[in-house]
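Troubleshooting log. The previous structure file for this entry was overwritten by mistake, so regenerating from the original sequence record. Sequence copied from the archived sheet and checked twice against the printout by T.R.
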Amino acid sequence: MREYVVRLSSLTVKNIKNVKKGTIFMPLAKERKLKLGGAEILGIYGQNGSGKTAIVDTLFFLQRIMIGKELDQNLIDYIDIDSSDAKVNAEFKIFGPNILFEVGYYINLIKQNGEVKINREYLNCAINKDGIRTNKNIFIDYKYNEMECIFKPQKRLDEVVGKNQETKMDLIVARKIAEKSNCSYIFGESSREILCKEYNNDFKSYGIVIRELFDFALKDLFVIRNTHSGMITANFLLPMAFRVESDRIGMKGDFAIPLMKPAVLDAEKKELLHTIVEQINTVLCTIIPGMRIEDKDYGQQALDSGEDGWKIELMSVREGKRPIPIRMESEGIIKIISILNALIQAFANPSICLVIDELDAGIFEYMLGELLDIFQKSAKGQLIFTAHNLRALEMLNKESIMFSTVNPNNRYIHMKNVKDTNNVRSMYIRSITLGGQDEIIYDETDSLKIARAFRKAGRSLCNE
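Regenerated output below.
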């Protein structure tokens, strides 16, 4: 277990897709205890097209930015069409030995000449230690248009540079590299190496913050979007989100296995797949009684490079029956297998933040409720999900549910006047029909108009 644990506290989104402004809060966001809390689950509910997936997409792109990757130019399609820029502010808590860092990462993205660029990014931080909490101040502020300035405030720049002019030149070069590569200056590789060094002044704590946020994005943040499920629906690939750390293997990502034919893997990937399958089987047989998966080895086959490879196919094995290819299982079972390793990681590891779009897709309603109830009571990490199935509203605490609204300037709210004894599912349905919340949470549809439209469309088909 690492010395520090990073937790996402909140996420504010402006001008992303159909969200003019909206903020989601994790259940423990307002607590300032030095001691790490337990599991945090946040389900985001609302009608279609009300901004749920915008949160998932924002976290996906934010993760790429925080590991120093070049900006994905697909972002230009996610910035509101009537806006020239988008803003994201992510708040984090970093728990360490008798210390708590309350950190905010702000980024401003602009459209420029048909591209997306980082116009400004900054990190602010408050340090809570020995019963004393500092003010939350910006400690590194990068602005694209301020060419003459490396970053602000000058005091922090002086702490990094000291009397070493070579370090100052390296920071200038790192800025040029970041601008040319169109990536984050704070988290870009060249500048990050300098900022995360061991300093003998106040910047030492800020270097820890940058390093831990980078490690969190690289190793601990899983974002599973709809494209992940799309490959399963197309019966094309089984992408298994995984994280493996052992004496022999240490990595994270998506292990994609073809569904229609065996895969040819080298020795390292073969061993990794076997490790993932073993971890999945530990839980799979309890979720789907009597079922496990196995990585069937058809023997050696040369890779395109000429090196030794092994022909491997994933099989579904049930008690008393012959193994069948995994593609013959239902889409729901394959979906569970694809996310199960990541769920195991989030259950056991307090530093994991797992984000899943449409968690309920293909999963039996009762099973979904049981999984969420187990997570809420016994897990250690964070789980953020969107869904349409309302079973979760009966299983989770009121702080673990946020609802998208009709108002694009206030997209996400907690339902008010909810008591511990209330059935949130019933209250949500009542609020849809009768209102009573601070924002309208459902853009009402007229069943008569829908029926009339169907009849009109039907008549037009008959007349063709």
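Residues 1-225+357-464 form one domain. Archived copy saved in two places this time.
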